[in-house]
Design brief:
alpha/beta, 7-stranded mixed beta sheet, 3-stranded antiparallel beta sheet, single chain, 44% helix, 12% strand
């Protein structure tokens, strides 16, 4: 009886979410559909040469007796291996970091890091669009949490269209409040308490880059005692930004001025897992206090081999040709979409895009009818996904396009043709508000 009652509660909550258009479902891509949705920006996971290299690595391990389907336990028990520790050293050296610590996923890396690094009395300032895993980690910490306006370093900065309707302050304004005036926190002002600043290098829903150099300079300027610690989630920059895909921090030469980085491997790298780049002391601290590392089974050899194979590909330099093509697609997609909007002239609620060229392979198509546009494109063989609130802020629903090195110019143009056909269909079926009002007025006089 109790179980049925709980199922009834769940059913009611699911029904309410369904009426709000927010019900999530597991879906499978249609066979033969063109991928404009996954985060596999370099298309490495489906590359025949990369797959062959991976299988060869597995074969060698089997022959040498090093292969195991499972790790057998956590890193602190029986799951640690020479392969894992060697891989951490290679990852740290590749990204120009003192040390690295592997986690099973980016989610676990963020929850582990943010739950234990900030201490009681510390403050975490975070971009309002920071990933859900960071929020979950912060909730487990004992630090005070304060959001700042997306990508807004100073009060005079212009935010992205629709990026914040909450009146949030800039990073600089918050740091000023923490370090001066009556509202300042004494221990922060004197350097006895720390301020952690959490940002992403590339934001997964809008595709825009963090103004990271400005953020670093702002933190260093306001926190004179060196008690500011910047954490950058490089999930969506790993593999394609910077020299051989080292990420935005390395691209800007900020390795020594950013306290910690989280690189994940399930996106452009085409495999799975993550690593926190940090100091050797921080690495030891996480091994002792990061619960998402301590109390979970370690990655087995097949997962480690996948990460090794992906990094080997980056280091080989073969990535450059793929990156050239990916950047070409980014420019071409923006050009075709801009031309589409110029021809069709849809209202903003039907379709609009960011004015400037995309900063990443992520291209949002903003529309109040994201589910309709997504379904239209899916029915024509394109794998795209509508993204709606609460995953994105209310009023910023969109279809999220992800471009890949494996896509072609022709595929981009065919997708944009499908988008234009949907736009024109929406405009043809819409009855202008003024016309409806006039008709109702005329009817009332009869």
């Amino acid at each position: 009886m109790g179980q049925q009652h709980l199922d009834d509660v769940f059913a009611s909550l699911l029904a309410r979410r369904g009426t709000q258009g927010r019900l999530r479902r597991l879906t499978l891509p249609s066979p033969g559909s063109v991928d404009f949705s996954s985060n596999s920006y370099l298309s490495l996971s489906s590359d025949a040469a990369v797959q062959a290299s991976y299988l060869e690595r597995l074969g060698r391990a089997c022959h040498q007796g090093h292969f195991s389907l499972g790790s057998g336990g956590s890193r602190l028990l029986d799951g640690n291996t020479p392969v894992a520790e060697a891989l951490e050293r290679e990852i740290a050296a590749f990204h120009g970091a003192p040390a690295a610590l592997l986690f099973n996923s980016g989610f676990e890396a963020n929850t582990g890091l943010f739950s234990c690094a900030p201490q009681k009395g510390d403050v975490v300032l975070f971009d309002e669009l920071i990933h859900a895993s960071v929020h979950d980690g912060m909730r487990l910490s004992r630090a005070r949490r304060v959001p700042f306006r997306h990508n807004c370093v100073r009060g005079g900065d212009d935010g992205r269209d629709g990026s914040s309707s909450t009146g949030l302050k800039s990073l600089d304004d918050l740091l000023t409040e923490l370090t001066s005036g009556e509202q300042g926190i004494q221990n922060v002002k004197t350097g006895r308490s720390n301020v952690f600043v959490a940002v992403e290098s590339v934001y997964s829903m809008d595709g825009d880059l963090a103004p990271l150099k400005d953020i670093v300079e702002c933190v260093e300027k306001r926190l004179h005692h060196g008690n500011g610690y910047i954490i950058v989630d490089e999930a969506h920059s790993t593999g394609w930004i910077g020299g051989r895909g080292r990420g935005l921090v390395s691209h800007l030469g900020l390795e020594s001025r950013v306290w910690a980085r989280v690189h994940t491997f399930g996106k452009a790298m085409g495999c799975a897992g993550a690593a926190v780049l940090c100091s050797p002391t921080t690495r030891s601290y996480l091994i002792n206090y990061a619960r998402s590392l301590i109390y979970t089974t370690a990655m087995a050899y097949p997962a480690l081999a996948g990460i090794q194979t992906a990094y080997e590909y980056l280091q080989s330099g073969q990535i450059e040709q793929r990156l050239d093509h990916l950047r070409l697609l980014m420019r071409h997609t923006h050009h075709v979409l801009t031309s589409l909007i110029s021809r069709a002239r849809p209202t903003r609620d039907i379709l609009h895009i960011n004015e400037g060229p995309p900063q990443s392979p992520i291209v949002p198509l903003f529309t109040s009818k994201a589910r309709s546009l997504g379904q239209h494109c899916q029915e024509r063989g394109f794998m795209v996904r509508p993204i709606v609130a609460p995953t994105v802020p209310a009023g910023t629903d969109r279809v999220r396009l992800c471009l890949h090195a494996g896509n072609t110019v022709e595929e981009v143009e065919l997708l944009c043709n499908a988008v234009e056909a949907w736009v024109r269909q929406q405009m043809e079926t819409r009855i202008p508000v003024e016309t409806t009002y006039r008709r109702s007025r005329q009817s009332s006089k009869l």
